[in-house]
Design brief:
Layout lengths: L2 H4 L2 H4 L7 H4 L5 E2 L27 H11 L6 E4 L1 H13 L6 E4 L6 H9 L2 E4 L10 H6 L4 E7 L11 H10 L5 E5 L21 E6 L12 E4 L2 H8 L9 H10 L2 H26 L4 E4 L6 E6 L2 H10 L2 E2 L1 E2 L9 E5 L3 H11 L5 H12 L7
Parallel strand pairs: 1-11, 3-4, 3-5, 5-6, 6-7
Antiparallel strand pairs: 2-8, 7-8, 9-10, 10-13, 12-13
């Protein structure tokens, strides 16, 4: 009997999540993973590496609860928000019976986590303007235990209408958990729904330190919910989810000084986003730059495959979104340094626009004229 045949059928057939690092590339300008382009500087203060860490490091929980305006028993810390996504499925969904629901185009780990565990991943595609299709969601809720909504949404960059979020929370009362993924909320903090937790016992908010905190390599995320729900997740979380160095640096990043640095970083990236938006609009090969509330821009190009390869060959790595529903011709561009963004713009400048490309294609397909 082969190893493959011993594996669970759903795992054998699973398409793994294609992270930026997994896709690879030989670049030196990485604009594909929504990371901050400059490494922050921290020094370890903890030295108890011979001891197991706390399951839920007290100082990290205290500081994040204060930052989020919540009580300590409403906060769970994990290995990135990705672990929070999986914990919710493990705690609330019966494999082979229950389903999760999400609305593409959106973050791919919702489906991968569900399928790995053997839970149906049900989709309701977002509308053309990327707002939620509320009637379709309501019609698809039978058997759904978990609804994931990303706001601001990855990869589109748009906020979900708060009234639509309330509608989803109302239609799922008593029947499903609603997880709002706020991985990018530091770029638009006024849009957070953490203030709704008292009103909705089935609401969960997912957070991360990978984006605005510039700590993607730390793998530290948070699940915010009412204490009863957090207690359930504590029953399925690993005994030591955060290593001692991770907890040490996370606590430093959540200090008053660390939060001030994060907010300055957010302001700086907002300026870069505005500047890059205007510069991209001047490129002939760009059809549309979509509005964004995040640290990346979704851009539709005249010939996205050519653009992607041209930049790839020059060591400038973007994220291709063509396979996502409704995102034909789109690439996602993370905000790098001004120098990195300028290098990308310089590489885009010679690429043809739609009129030039049509002329080139017509030229290539025109019948040759033989001499008389």
């Amino acid at each position: 009997m082969s190893i493959q045949s011993l594996a669970r059928k759903n795992v054998r057939e699973l398409t793994p999540y294609q992270s930026a690092r997994r896709l690879g590339g030989n670049g030196d300008v990485w604009l594909n993973a929504n990371e901050y382009p400059i490494a922050p500087q921290f020094e370890l203060t903890a030295q108890t590496f011979n001891r197991y860490p706390e399951c839920q490091p007290v100082l990290v929980i205290e500081r994040y609860a204060a930052y989020a305006g919540l009580e300590k028993d409403q906060v769970l810390v994990s290995r990135g928000a990705d672990e929070g996504i999986e914990l919710l499925i493990r705690a609330f969904c019966e494999p082979g019976k229950d389903a999760i629901l999400y609305c593409p185009p959106t973050y791919g780990m919702y489906s991968v986590s569900a399928e790995t565990i053997g839970v149906e991943a049900r989709t309701v595609q977002a509308k053309e303007d990327w707002s939620l299709d509320l009637p379709a969601i309501k019609a698809a809720l039978d058997g759904v235990k978990l609804v994931y909504v990303c706001s601001p949404n990855n990869p589109t960059g748009n906020l979900i209408n708060p009234e639509d979020l309330r509608t989803v929370l109302e239609m799922t009362r008593g029947r499903a958990i609603v997880a709002i993924d706020e991985a990018y909320i530091e770029f638009c903090p006024q849009a957070s729904v953490t203030g709704w937790l008292k009103e909705y016992p089935h609401l969960v908010v997912l957070r991360t330190m990978s984006k605005a905190f510039a700590l993607a390599g730390l793998r530290c995320g948070f699940t915010l919910a009412n204490s009863e729900l957090i207690a359930l997740l504590m029953q399925v979380i690993a005994p030591y989810p955060l290593s001692t160095p991770v907890a040490d640096i996370a606590a430093q990043a959540l200090s008053d000084q660390g939060l001030a640095v994060m907010r300055a970083r957010v302001a700086e990236m907002g300026e870069t986003r505005s500047w890059l938006t205007q510069q991209l609009k001047r490129c002939d090969c760009v059809e549309q730059v979509f509005a964004s509330e995040t640290n990346y821009l979704l851009v539709r190009f005249t010939a996205s495959s050519q653009v992607f390869k041209t930049l790839w060959d020059q060591g400038i790595i973007l994220r291709d979104q063509n396979k996502q529903p409704g995102l034909s011709g789109c690439l996602r561009i993370s905000l790098g340094t001004r120098q990195e963004c300028q290098r990308m713009l310089d590489a885009l400048q010679p690429l043809p626009g739609i009129n030039e490309r049509t002329a080139i294609m017509n030229n290539e397909t025109a019948p040759s004229k033989e001499p008389m």
